[in-house]
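re: the backbone from monday

yeah here it is again, tokenized this time
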């Protein structure tokens, strides 16, 4: 008789439900702790709940899942490729056969973890290796992001903070200073950090403001940002006297991984399931300078959409079919979300990126202004122009 799982959960993110089956000897605490800031974690078995879109089974022994590595040619691939070695997960890929068709088999290079991706059964089997890393986290994030994209979500390369019932998106390219500015806004506005490396957005009802949701991430911060917060320095394992190579001060090479638990103690997230209307967008471009300047700027849907990303087209990431690509059906929803984002006030931040509460007054005004009041002003102007 095949072994049975010792625990069964459903990982819930918005309307995405992923089944998680754990077998004897698996320590899932690191995974569940990481996800708990943004995912609901529920015991499986609710007969009235929607069926999960896929299943993730995790075992400590290959025989529990019947997993074997095929004797076939292998090629190097990446479950995730990053500028930081800490986040990079390389693997050897082989093609095997399952009961319902081909199965992609990955053997992670550093940990020895085995991953079987069975598209026909919408199932991911994982046999943990000698020293598991971020593999489980990346598998869950990848699968759920793809499912969200299939539902029409716009996934933005942006951080977000939440206060006064609304959200401020901080959007920019790598190294632009998104995290630096988001943390400055959080302190200056008394805001919660809603999201780190990406934000999930859906169009609001009846043409209302775009609603954004946070996303669990592993903070990766530049030293200049870390040095402002002694708690984050300690969480990152850095001595108070640590100084990085000056040449990397504004480079991805000068960044440090901060354990999520330590980051959340200093910058708590809002409650799980928070969906906040986007009230403002900040485009940072920080760097050396004498003072930080936050100034209004023009933006449009095209500029906002330039920060869209997709797990289906991520460069260098291994592609598989456990979650098939159905994003074309959600194109109109993403376009609507981008147009609503383009309708809110936008700002640039230049200079070293240190913001005071006074600096952030224009952003706070945008947060406190309801969409109804802005549309009401426009309607009033239109009525006066017809008199």
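seq for it, each position gets an aa:
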């Amino acid at each position: 008789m095949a072994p049975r799982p010792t625990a069964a959960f459903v990982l819930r993110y918005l309307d995405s439900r992923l089944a998680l089956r754990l077998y004897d000897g698996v320590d899932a605490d690191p995974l569940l702790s990481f996800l708990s800031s943004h995912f609901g974690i529920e015991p499986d078995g609710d007969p009235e709940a929607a069926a999960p879109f896929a299943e993730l089974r995790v075992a400590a022994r290959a025989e529990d899942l019947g997993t074997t590595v095929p004797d076939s040619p292998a090629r190097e691939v990446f479950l995730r490729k990053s500028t930081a070695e800490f986040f990079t997960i390389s693997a050897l890929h082989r093609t095997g056969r399952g009961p319902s068709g081909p199965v992609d088999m990955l053997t992670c290079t550093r940990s020895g973890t085995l991953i079987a991706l069975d598209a026909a059964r919408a199932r991911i089997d994982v046999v943990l290796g000698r020293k598991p890393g971020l593999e489980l986290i990346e598998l869950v994030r990848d699968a759920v992001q793809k499912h969200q994209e299939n539902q029409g979500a716009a996934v933005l390369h942006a951080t977000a903070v939440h206060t006064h019932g609304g959200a401020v998106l901080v959007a920019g390219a790598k190294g632009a200073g998104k995290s630096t500015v988001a943390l400055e806004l959080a302190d200056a506005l008394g805001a919660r950090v809603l999201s780190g490396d990406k934000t999930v957005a859906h169009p609001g009802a009846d043409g209302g403001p775009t609603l954004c949701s946070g996303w669990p991430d592993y903070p990766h911060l530049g030293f200049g940002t870390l040095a402002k917060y002694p708690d984050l320095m300690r969480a990152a394992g850095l001595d108070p006297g640590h100084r990085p190579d000056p040449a990397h001060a504004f480079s991805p090479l000068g960044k440090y991984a901060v354990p999520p638990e330590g980051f959340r103690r200093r910058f708590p997230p809002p409650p799980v399931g928070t969906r906040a209307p986007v009230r403002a967008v900040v485009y940072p471009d920080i760097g050396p300078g004498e003072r930080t300047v936050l100034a209004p700027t023009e933006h449009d849907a095209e500029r906002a959409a330039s920060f869209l990303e997709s797990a289906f087209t991520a460069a260098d990431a291994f592609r598989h079919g456990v979650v098939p690509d159905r994003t074309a059906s959600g194109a109109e929803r993403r376009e609507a979300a981008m147009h609503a984002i383009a309708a809110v006030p936008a700002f640039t931040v230049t200079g070293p990126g240190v913001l005071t509460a006074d600096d952030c007054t224009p952003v706070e005004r945008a947060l406190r202004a309801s969409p109804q009041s802005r549309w009401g002003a426009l309607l009033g102007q239109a009525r006066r122009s017809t008199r």
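Residues 135-150 form the longest helix (16 residues). The longest strand covers residues 275-286.
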